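Appendix B. Raw example, untouched.
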Amino acid sequence: MTDCPLRAGKGFIVTNENAVNQSNAATAAQDPAVTPESVVEQLRALRAQIPNYGQLPIPAARTLRSVSSLNAEFAQAAIHAVGASPTVQSTVGQSAEQLQAAGETAARWSMVRDELKATLDGVTSAVLTMKHSFGQSILLTYTVSKKLVKVPQHADLLPHVAIMRKANRLGRNRKSLPQAPAPAPTPVPTPHV
């Protein structure tokens, strides 16, 4: 552990290797056999096994959505109608048992969809947390480096600080757009009595 207090401006900065390496400890604790690339590979292999898997354009999905979300009681009554009438069954081209199985299969795949959505939410949170931790380390590096360059023995950091200062967008105000002058008030005619 290296504690190095530096006088910079009105206060002191203390650098601590343990504080900077906290995010590295969390990363090392994870299973090294699981990598983002291996997860992507597994997901692609899984997609190949899902029946009817594909991406739909928004208009096509919109067209399918209304019929795909029929009332469950209505659907069950239709299945019973197919079972009760050979004419309806021959027109539909499926038996009541086939329709019942199709409905149950769709419901079971809906559970998969819900689980994948929950997984996506969890991965989104994990990535946000990782990026936040990385960003905190980068901002700490910038802050410490800005203070260190004020000491001659750390002059080798000057070009790095200059690049960081130029590229830093955090905390900068955007150039405000010129405001159009306010329109002059229109005179209100006074009625003559």
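End of appendix B.
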